[in-house]
Amino acid sequence: MSLNDEVLKEDKDTIEEGQENTNTMQKEQEMTQDDIREVDEQEDLINEEESAETAQIEKLQQEIEEMKALAQRTQADFMNYKKRVEKEKSELTVFANEKIVTEMLTIVDNFERALQSEKENSETAFFKGVELILKQLMDTLYKFGLEEIDALNQDFDPNFHHAVIQEEADEPDKVIDVLQKGYKLKDKVIRPSMVKVSK
């Protein structure tokens, strides 16, 4: 082999070797680009999954907040309902008591008239017994919230007093006599006092 042939062969080998290196590099570059694409795709998938999970978490948090608000409203509604029922129950009790107490006032009036007519016999056992019964009856009515309206020597007030007689006096619009006692039940007038008023 001649020198030329040898140089040619070496050049050919070098070229083939260079070509192989180029092919290998191209393959490696293609593989690297494929790997990059694959990594990018995986990142995109992960990002999509994270976005979906974040959206799901936000949706669940919103549902939790809505449920909390609903629970608070329900609790408030229940407390209002409970208060309303208690108030209605109390009013019903007062109304029922009012009816009974109003009926009992007629009996009280009769006891008071009986005692008034027998004042001269106030030392008898019968008088004292009736007086004791009246006191016990009034104590029981007071326990249910009955209050006597203070009228004598007070300014006339049509909310508490019912004027049946007017009489000349020094001071006008004063209650100068109580003909029948008036009563309140839990701050509600159930019977105004029948009074004589100055004019």
Could you explain how this protein is built, in words?
The chain is an alpha+beta fold and 199 residues long. The chain has a domain at 146-199: Nucleotide Exchange Factor Grpe, Chain A, domain 2 (Roll), CATH 2.30.22.10. The protein is built from two helices and six strands. The strands form two sheets. Strands 1-4-5 form a three-stranded antiparallel sheet. It has a three-stranded mixed sheet with strand order 2-6-3, with no helix packed on it. The longest helix has 115 residues, at 3-117.
Q: What order do the helices and strands come in, and which of them pair?
A:
Elements: H1 3-117, H2 125-143, E1 146-148, E2 161-167, E3 175-180, E4 183-185, E5 188-191, E6 193-198
Parallel strand pairs: 2-6
Antiparallel strand pairs: 1-4, 3-6, 4-5
Query: Proportion of β residues?
Result: 5-15%
- The residue fraction in helices comes out at 55-70%
Q: In the CATH hierarchy, what is the superfamily of the domain at 146-199?
A: Head domain of nucleotide exchange factor GrpE
Give the termini separation.
Answer: 160 Å
Main structural class: alpha+beta
Family: Belongs to the GrpE family.
GO molecular function: adenyl-nucleotide exchange factor activity; protein homodimerization activity; protein-folding chaperone binding; unfolded protein binding
Subcellular location: Cytoplasm
Keywords: Chaperone, Coiled coil, Cytoplasm, Stress response
